[in-house]
Amino acid sequence: MVGFVVVSHSKALAQEAINLADEMRKYEFPLINGSGTEGEFLGSNPLIIKDAILKANTKTGVIIFVDIGSSVLNSQIAIEFLENEIDVRNIKIADAPLVEGLIAGVAINDEKATVEDILNELKEFKNFSKLNY
């Protein structure tokens, strides 16, 4: 199974997204909150994200779910920090909406899932419309 990290500017928002997605979880796998900064200010910190990646890392890999802006950039920096410590080829950032992507990822993550399998499923959310009129 793939490990997941959630990175938001708000640690509380990320935790609520995790709580919601947990309702769809069928199997046990790492689902780690890598959000916030030291001092609990809004924002993201590549060192916190790096630690979360290490906690979430499985032999299959890690997918990072992000909200906006610096969460993406700081996740990329965290992956770069890890290049000399672990194999980062299967650590990827999901290009999907944070909440919807996380819920779907949690629902489809099983013992046969790979990082690429889940990312391919999440591609559908790039054009997902909530309204049909």
Question: What does this entry look like structurally?
Answer:
The structure is a single chain. The chain has a single domain, classed as Phosphotransferase system, mannose-type IIA component (Rossmann fold), CATH 3.40.50. α1 (11-22) packs parallel to α4, α2 (46-56) crosses α3 (70-82) and α4 packs across α5 (115-122). The mean pLDDT is 94. The chain is 41% helix and 12% strand. The chain has a 4-stranded parallel β-sheet, with helices on both faces. It has helices at 11-22, 46-56, 70-82, 98-108, 115-122; strands at 3-7, 31-33, 62-66, 91-93. It is of the alpha/beta class. The chain has 5 helices and 4 strands; from the N terminus they run βαβαβαβαα.
What are the SSEs and their pairings?
Elements lengths: L2 E5 L3 H12 L8 E3 L12 H11 L5 E5 L3 H13 L8 E3 L4 H11 L6 H8 L11
Parallel strand pairs: 1-2, 1-3, 3-4
Helix pairs in contact: 1-4, 2-3, 4-5
Q: Which of globular, elongated, flat, extended, rod-shaped describes the shape?
A: globular
Q: Going across the biggest sheet, name each strand in turn.
A: 2-1-3-4
Distance between the termini: 38 Å
Low-confidence stretches at least 5 residues in length (pLDDT < 50)?
A: none
* H-E order: EHEHEHEHH
Q: Please tell me the total number of domains.
A: 1
What's the number of extended β-strand segments? 4
Strand coverage percent: 5-15%
In round numbers, the mean pLDDT is 94
Query: How many helices?
Result: 5
Give the biggest sheet.
4 strands, parallel
CATH superfamily: Phosphotransferase system, mannose-type IIA component
Rg over C-alpha atoms, rounded to the nearest angstrom? 14 Å
| CATH topology category name | Rossmann fold
Question: Helicity, in percent?
Answer: 40-55%
CATH class: Alpha Beta
Q: Which class best fits the helix and strand makeup?
A: alpha/beta
CATH structural architecture: 3-Layer(aba) Sandwich
